[in-house]
Design a protein that fits this description.
It contains five helices and seven strands; from the N terminus they run ββαββαβαβαβα. By secondary structure, the chain is α/β, with parallel strands linked by helices. A seven-stranded mixed beta sheet has the order 1-3-4-2-5-6-7, sandwiched between helices. The structure holds guanosine-5'-triphosphate and magnesium ion (MG).
């Protein structure tokens, strides 16, 4: 629909939206493709920091999926990084159409400093958050269980946060995530 660099390029704030957020390279675009069952709706890449704008995808009705720019990519100049952070913060705090946030964390190293900051922003904005622990196909079953346990421990006190293991590669959690998104959008 739109790739917006600045808030004035955002589509009109009507209907309902679900946004995807997470560190650069965590698998946001891959998750959007897996959930929508489209091969290349959102562009994926091996090099982090590729999605530099807010990308809005139109669904039937006045409904949208939103791919927020990845945070925490060290090689991006500080000025641009700050621009992203303030854009994401503004989007989360002001967007009336926003029904819920899909927050992705890499299951191999979740809860980085920026992930924690993001979770606290969501919590103070009283925004429903669904955490995907991505690339779970890279973990053993035991690792998956202990990761889920430690992430739960930190997110439970934050309120409306659900944690779901996820893989765009083997399909783990895709149905569950789609179900949550459909519920929010309705
Ligand atoms: N093994 C595995 N690899 C994945 C998975 N999801 C994404 N990847 C890989 O991770 C890399 C980054 O994926 P993207 O979907 O482009 O990540 P992104 O968060 O959109 O990245 P930026 O837009 O650059 O911030 C690609 O090489 C993907 O193939 C997954 O579930 N399992
Ligand atoms: Mg992307």
């Amino acid at each position: 629909m739109t790739a917006a660099h600045t808030p004035d390029q955002w589509p009109p704030d009507r209907g309902s939206e679900v946004a995807f957020v997470g560190r650069s390279n965590v698998g946001k675009s891959s998750a959007i493709n897996a959930i929508t069952q489209r091969k290349a709706l959102a562009r994926t890449s091996r090099s982090p920091g590729r999605t530099q704008q807010i990308v809005f995808f139109q669904l039937p009705g006045e409904r949208r999926l939103v791919d927020l720019p990845g945070y925490g990519y060290a090689k991006v100049p500080a000025k641009l990084r700050n621009h992203w952070a303030s854009t994401i913060e503004k989007y989360i705090n002001t967007r009336a159409a926003l029904r819920g946030l899909i927050m992705l964390m890499d299951s191999r190293h979740p809860l980085t400093e920026l992930d924690r900051k993001m979770l606290h922003w969501c919590s103070s904005a009283e925004l429903s958050t669904y955490v995907l622990l991505t690339k779970i196909d890279k973990l053993s079953r035991n690792q998956m269980i202990s990761t889920q346990r430690s992430v739960n421990k930190e997110t439970v006190p934050l309120g409306d946060v659900t944690v779901q293991p996820f893989s765009a590669v083997d399909g783990t959690g895709v149905k569950e995530a789609r179900c949550q998104i459909v519920t929010w959008l309705e």
